[in-house]
């Protein structure tokens, strides 16, 4: 398991009975987590000191209950490769339990930011990175802070606006980032026709989604052809490709098989896939939070 264990402003305090107790900066939230199938004693004081609690409905969805929680606040994360340049993320609770950030992804930010920094390219020829299904921009900011020129693509205008605000908060307002609201598949198809190439590709596809014009995405049907398509955008001396999955059926071994089948036979390099997770303070154990597949040259 790849562990995101360098957070100062975020912490999984405890887990029990389908829920996790988290500290986001100065505020404590309780959110549902389907991985938490154990019912251990809730001894941590935070269970009684929460600022927000997302209650899941038996009919699907759910709703927030707040206790002295601001509408919006920020936390910071400092990459190991960039000790003096913290990234700043704006947070706010919104539909379906989310806050606008997946902290476990810091394990991947550390990995690809190191690869980008090691290239040590001149400013007029930076590492080019494509971030697809890019959400609020955690990976975009990490890559840009490491020196990459990033193309950020997401079908949601609101998410792209949120990501731009995170970039401004992180001192990356002038960084070479292209912000695009687009259907990822159609964007990749156009980039292939244009002859565009990227040195690194990041994708965080949803289990199910719709593009700006109603395009349907079902990950079980779409990820294999999409990976084959997107691999055509990798430059001749590409550095990496990353796929994140929060879908139960796409386990690490599945990601590893797919990436290896598409890239290793063509380019060599190395493919790895593991669960990604977060340390739990109360138990000293690790909470699984999804899976990631990595290819590097």
Kindly name the structural category.
alpha/beta
Number of strands: 17
Helix content range:
10-25%
Largest pleated sheet: 8 strands, mixed
Estimate the strand proportion.
25-35%
- Low-confidence parts, pLDDT < 50 over ≥5 residues? none
Indicate the overall shape: globular
Number of helices: 6
The Rg value, from CA coordinates, equals: 19 Å
Whole-Å distance between the termini? 21 Å
Major sheet: order of its strands? Answer: 1-16-17-15-12-9-10-11
Return the average pLDDT rounded to an integer. Answer: 94
Order of helices and strands: EEEEEEEEHEHEHEHEEEHEHEE
Please render the helix and strand layout as text.
Blueprint: E1 2-3, E2 10-16, E3 19-24, E4 27-32, E5 52-56, E6 62-66, E7 73-77, E8 87-91, H1 106-119, E9 128-132, H2 138-145, E10 149-154, H3 157-169, E11 177-181, H4 184-194, E12 200-203, E13 208-210, E14 216-218, H5 219-230, E15 240-245, H6 252-267, E16 270-279, E17 286-296
Parallel strand pairs: 1-16, 4-5, 9-10, 9-12, 10-11, 12-15
Antiparallel strand pairs: 2-3, 3-4, 5-6, 7-8, 13-14, 15-17, 16-17
């Amino acid at each position: 398991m790849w562990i995101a264990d360098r957070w100062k402003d975020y912490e999984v305090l405890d887990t029990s009975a389908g829920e996790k107790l988290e500290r986001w900066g100065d505020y404590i939230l309780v959110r549902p987590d389907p991985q938490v199938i154990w019912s251990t004693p809730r001894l941590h004081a935070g269970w009684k000191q929460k600022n927000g609690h997302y209650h899941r409905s038996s009919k699907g969805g759910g709703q927030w209950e707040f206790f002295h929680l601001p509408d919006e606040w920020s936390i910071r994360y400092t990459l190991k490769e960039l000790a003096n340049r913290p990234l700043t993320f704006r947070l706010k609770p919104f539909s379906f339990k989310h806050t606008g950030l997946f902290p476990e992804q810091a394990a991947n930010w550390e990995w690809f930011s190191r690869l980008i920094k090691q290239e040590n390219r001149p400013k007029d020829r930076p590492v080019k990175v494509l971030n697809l299904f890019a959400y609020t921009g955690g990976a975009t900011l990490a890559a840009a802070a490491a020196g990459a020129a990033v193309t950020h693509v997401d079908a949601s205008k609101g998410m792209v606006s949120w990501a731009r605000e995170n970039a401004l908060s992180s001192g990356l307002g002038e960084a070479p980032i292209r912000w695009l609201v687009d259907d990822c598949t159609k964007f990749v198809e156009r980039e292939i026709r244009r002859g565009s190439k990227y040195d690194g590709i990041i994708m965080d596809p949803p289990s199910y989604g719709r593009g700006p014009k109603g395009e349907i995405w079902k990950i079980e049907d779409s990820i294999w052809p999409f990976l084959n398509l997107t691999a055509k955008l990798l430059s001749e001396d590409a550095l990496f490709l990353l796929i994140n999955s929060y879908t139960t059926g796409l386990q690490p071994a599945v990601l590893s098989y797919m990436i290896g089948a598409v890239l290793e036979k063509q380019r060599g390099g190395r493919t790895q896939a593991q669960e990604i997770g977060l340390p739990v303070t109360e138990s000293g154990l690790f909470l699984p939070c999804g899976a990631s597949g990595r290819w590097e040259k």
